[in-house]
Design brief:
Elements lengths: L1 H8 L5 H39 L5 H11 L5 H17 L5 H36 L3 H37 L4 H6 L6
């Protein structure tokens, strides 16, 4: 239905291009959201596994929440870590602080610090750059622009919006050098 509406709104003679742009957008956004699922899965398994090995209660809850909230760039990992510390504090409130609770909290913080490093240095650059066919620096800059324009919501919507803009530009404005450079990997 959406494709038919877009085709009906397209000027005469551009229906084929409009359909190509829609196909590209669908393909790239499907790959992007697949990348998010991959990221959430890796982070869930990593955080849950390490917390479980360290004997932290509710490891799966902490790991899954951290992975889902990590979708929000920059502030998501901080919220996830605070949630992990909060759950660890509240489930172990009856144990001695210095002897037992402080080591547990230290382990939780170490898990989140290593998770953040792994996510920033490996998962996001490689998964998202391969999934939406954009350079990791390009993705970083798009997220920063999204933050300036729309705050947290802008950061969340930055990559999907940029993906749509690139796909449309690739079809309708491919004669411009800037667009050619920006979209050179889309046809691979």
């Amino acid at each position: 239905l959406f494709a038919n509406i877009v085709t009906a709104l397209a000027p005469r003679g551009t229906e084929k291009d409009a359909n190509k742009a829609l196909d590209d957008i669908t393909y790239l956004l499907t790959r992007y959201f697949g990348g998010i699922v991959i990221q959430i899965s890796i982070i869930t398994f990593y955080v849950t596994g390490l917390l479980y090995l360290f004997g932290i209660s509710n490891a799966l809850l902490i790991g899954f929440f951290a992975a889902v909230i990590n979708v929000i760039p920059f502030v998501g990992p901080l919220i996830g870590a605070m949630f992990g510390v909060f759950i660890t504090l509240t489930t172990n409130i009856d144990i001695p602080f210095y002897d037992a609770l402080l080591p547990k909290l230290t382990k939780v913080i170490i898990v989140f610090a290593t998770m953040q490093l792994m996510d920033n240095l490996l998962i996001q650059p490689y998964v998202f750059s391969n999934r939406i066919k954009a350079h990791p620096l390009e993705i970083f800059l798009v997220i920063l622009v999204g933050a300036q324009i729309g705050g947290v919501l802008g950061m969340i919507l930055a990559i999907p919006s940029y993906t749509v803009i690139r796909a449309v530009a690739n079809v309708f404005f491919s004669n411009f050098k800037l667009v050619q450079r920006m979209t050179k990997n889309l046809d691979d």
